[in-house]
Design a protein that fits this description.
The complex is a heterodimer of chains A (519) and B (252). With 519 residues, chain A is an all-alpha fold. Chain A is built from 18 helices and no strands. The radius of gyration of chain A is 22 Å and the shape is globular. Chain B folds into two domains: 73 residues; 175 residues, Cytochrome c oxidase, subunit III, four-helix bundle (Four Helix Bundle (Hemerythrin (Met), subunit A)), CATH 1.20.120.80. Classes of the chains: A mainly alpha (519), B mainly alpha (252).
């Protein structure tokens, strides 16, 4: 026990991240089920309006800040990066341990939502002036959750950028890195630059609410849109913090399971990953199309938003291209990865109408937006993370999960997400506003809402099966061996399953013609 | 010493350190818990108790961490890590400045009504103090490089005294302005003034904290060149930010 709580080893820190992210995912998932049940029928249901707001708050905040970002950067980066680059640990192991515990206390603070009087009810966005003037909820806990998890992310960025710069195995050049390492580098550059802006935004909210400053009070010379600008200046790039490592993980799974190179490696790295990082900072106004900003700003950002589909397209082409003439084997991880190629398309293409200022006037604040970002973040990124957990499960535990149960749960999951969210696109286009507690004025949408609720429960069953599979596999699965997938990447070829302290029995060196994709 | 985390390649046992956990716990108690209890739930006594316990945890944690790490082989990663961290810090200041610019440039009249004249003599004096403290720390670093630990301690103490003098000036200035009725919530100018200068002052305070944890081991004869240089880099950064604060807040 002591060796876990006080560990500074990157693999154990990674597992601690994983436990935290899955806990956040489970509770936030239960909130989603409560929300879906509430929307089953027109009129008040199982939740009071206030409980509904708290459920929406917790679902959003915990899924993004507690599950997706820490799962894809915290857990995956911690577990994989040092091994992929052939290092014995990260460059600052103690700071790494500090990161994970700051994150855990952030989760604890978020979970306190359910026991404190006046829980926060301000969505995960915390928009002013509601969050700073009108709510009777405890906005401070929201702000400090962002602070704790944000500080943890910044420390993680410093740590991993240093690790990638200094601790690569002797002989490992930049173009020999695993694709996942590049995506993590890109994601952490974004975290490093943009998280502080979110931290500043919520700090100003805190000052306004508790100390009476005037940042967001128009009467005293403040500006409400200042908050939205600062908030989305971080929170749009945060989408890429989630997307990039997800694509990286997908690329590793796809290349391994189809015995192939990364298709267009250099284009995908220097154009795709770094293109997203560069352009990602200049698109945030597409979240504010309907808030009355100047036309030059809205149209300018419409152009950049449309242009960013080019680097994202490069990444997608590489994902698909890596299957080309491969010898494909379908493990559960590969099924998740392959389904992402479809889901990323559905989520990505529905983003294009939302990038247009004119169409967004109609679509803003409807279920269309909600279904769009659930497809791209909630589903594609989650499927990528789940695929990654399945793929590296033998490495983490040294044991094998049940492939049959994995495939059954995958199929249920895939059906569930589509049943849940595809109808919501439809009612969104027809004008159903999102976030509403009661939709008495739109009774015609009750059917679609009920289909979505059924879908949500299919997902819940699939998730429960998945968790059972992992827990059972980790305790009682058959031994997996060092390299069950026959991968050429260092964490499979040189490290035991599970790896011991220091990762490698002998520190690896690589030659000039080595790549992690030599099949 | 080789049982600790950094500077130890390919070990045969799981490495541990209790201090990161203690610091995280301390931060959790002293920031969210204490703040929530005091300002949201109006429980001043319990809130202050959480604050004090949290502060003690952070102090013990940092002290133990420094003690554990200071004797290790110096790999010098911090000299890259700290500048990377400073990128983040810069962005926080930039966010605060953009809030200030947005409020100021969209205002009809500036300064808004009810703002007293803020003197420029004191900030000039404070600038001189802060620049001198960067110079004195640099001299101290040089002494340590030559192996003169006594000289290092002397110059470190001088630097800390200058930093404290700077904070004293800030408190004097705030006190003066508050007596003239210029409080945080008075208007847009007071909001920007107190948050930006206050945020900078908190960085001076953190810098002094780092110096304290350089000083405590130094008094027992333990020093570490990487740690000293990283602390110096942070201090110079705080110094440079001050130029922006002065030029934007006092002389514009």
């Amino acid at each position: 026990m002591k060796e876990w709580i006080f560990t500074t080893d990157h693999k154990r820190v990674g597992i601690l991240y994983l436990i935290g992210t899955l806990a956040a995912f489970a509770v936030a998932g239960l909130m989603a089920l409560a929300i879906r049940l509430e929307l089953w029928e027109v009129g008040p249901g199982i939740l009071s309006p206030n409980q509904y707001n708290v459920a929406l708050y917790f679902h959003g905040a915990a899924m993004i800040l507690g599950f997706l970002i820490p799962g894809l950067t915290g857990f995956l980066a911690n577990y994989l990066i040092p091994m992929m680059i052939g290092a014995h640990d990260v460059s600052f192991p103690r700071i790494n341990a500090l990161s994970v515990w700051l994150y855990w206390f952030g989760i604890v603070l978020a979970l306190l939502t359910f026991v404190i009087p006046n829980p926060p009810d301000i969505m995960w966005t915390g928009y002013v002036p509601y969050a700073s003037q009108y709510t009777s909820g405890n906005s401070a806990f929201y702000v400090f959750t962002v602070h704790l998890i944000g500080f943890s992310s910044i420390l993680g960025s410093v740590n991993f950028l240093c690790t990638i710069i200094y601790m690569r195995a002797p002989g490992m050049g930049w173009n020999q890195l695993n694709f996942f390492v590049w995506t993590i580098a890109g994601a952490f550059v974004i975290q490093l630059i943009f998280v502080p802006v979110l931290a500043a935004a919520v700090t100003l909210l805190l000052l306004d609410k508790y100390f009476g400053t005037a940042f967001f009070v128009p009467d005293s010379g403040g500006d409400v849109l200042l908050y939205q600008n600062l908030f989305w200046f971080y929170s749009h790039p945060a989408v890429y913090v989630i997307l990039l490592p997800a694509v990286g993980a997908l690329m590793e799974i796809i290349t391994t399971m189809s015995r192939n190179q990364v298709f267009n490696y250099k284009v995908a790295v220097y154009g795709g990953v770094w293109g997203v990082v560069l352009l990602g900072s200049d698109v945030w106004v597409h979240h504010l199309y309907t808030s009355g900003l100047a036309d030059w700003l809205r149209i300018g950002m419409m152009v950049t938003t449309l242009i960013i589909s080019v680097p994202v397209g490069l990444l997608t082409i590489s994902l698909v291209g890596s299957l080309y003439r491969g010898s494909i084997q379908y493990s559960t991880g590969m099924l998740y990865a392959a389904s992402c190629l479809f889901l990323i398309l559905l989520g990505g293409l529905t983003g294009i109408p939302l990038a247009m200022t004119s169409l967004t006037l109609h679509l803003a604040e409807t279920y269309f937006v909600m279904a769009h970002f659930h497809f791209i973040m909630g589903i594609t990124a989650t499927f990528a993370l789940f695929g990654a957990i399945y793929h590296w499960f033998p490495k983490m535990t040294g044991k094998m999960y049940s492939e049959t149960l994995g495939k059954i749960s995958f199929v249920l999951n895939f059906i569930g997400v589509n049943v849940t969210f595809i109808p919501l696109f439809g009612i969104g286009v027809e004008g159903m506003p999102r976030r509403y507690y009661d939709y008495a004025m739109f009774p015609q949408f009750q059917g679609a809402q009920q289909i979505a609720t059924v879908g949500a429960f299919i997902i819940a069953v699939a998730m429960a099966l998945t968790f059972v599979n992992w827990i059972h596999g980790a305790i009682a699965g058959p031994p997996a061996g060092k390299n069950p997938w026959g991968s050429a990447s260092l964490e499979w070829t040189h490290a035991d399953s599970p790896p011991g302290p220091g990762n490698f029995p002998t520190p690896p060196t690589v030659s000039e013609d080595w790549t992690p994709y030599n099949y | 010493m080789d049982h600790t985390a950094e500077g130890h390649a390919g070990g045969h046992h799981w490495e541990v350190s209790i201090y990161p956990f203690i610091i995280a716990l301390g931060i959790f108690l002293l920031a969210p818990m204490a703040f929530g209890l005091i300002f949201e739930y109006k429980m001043l006594g319990i809130g202050l108790a959480f604050f004090v316990v949290g502060l003690i945890c952070v102090f013990i944690g940092v002290l133990g961490w420094v003690n554990e790490a200071i004797g290790q082989k110096e790999l010098g990663y911090s000299l890259t890590g700290l500048p990377i961290f400073i990128v983040s810090e810069t962005m926080i200041f930039l966010s605060l400045f953009s809030a200030y610019w947005m409020m100021r440039l969209s205002a009809d009249t500036w300064p808004p009504e009810g703002s007293p004249e803020i003197g420029v003599v004191l900030p000039v004096f404070m600038t001189i103090i802060l620049i001198s403290s960067s110079v004195t720390f640099h001299i101290g670093e040089g002494k340590l490089d030559e192996g003169d630990k006594a000289g290092f301690k002397t110059w470190l103490l001088i630097t800390m005294a200058l930093g404290l003098l700077f904070l004293g000036c800030t408190i004097y200035e705030y006190n003066h302005l508050i007596h003239e009725g210029f409080r945080w919530g008075t208007n847009a100018k007071s909001t920007a003034f107190y948050s930006i200068t206050g945020f900078h002052a908190s960085h001076v305070f953190i810098g002094l904290g780092i110096f304290l944890f350089l000083l405590i081991p130094a008094l027992r004869g333990k020093t570490n060149m990487t740690f000293t240089m990283a602390a110096g880099t942070y201090w110079h950064f705080v110094d440079i930010i001050w130029f922006f604060v002065v030029s934007q807040i006092y002389f514009w």
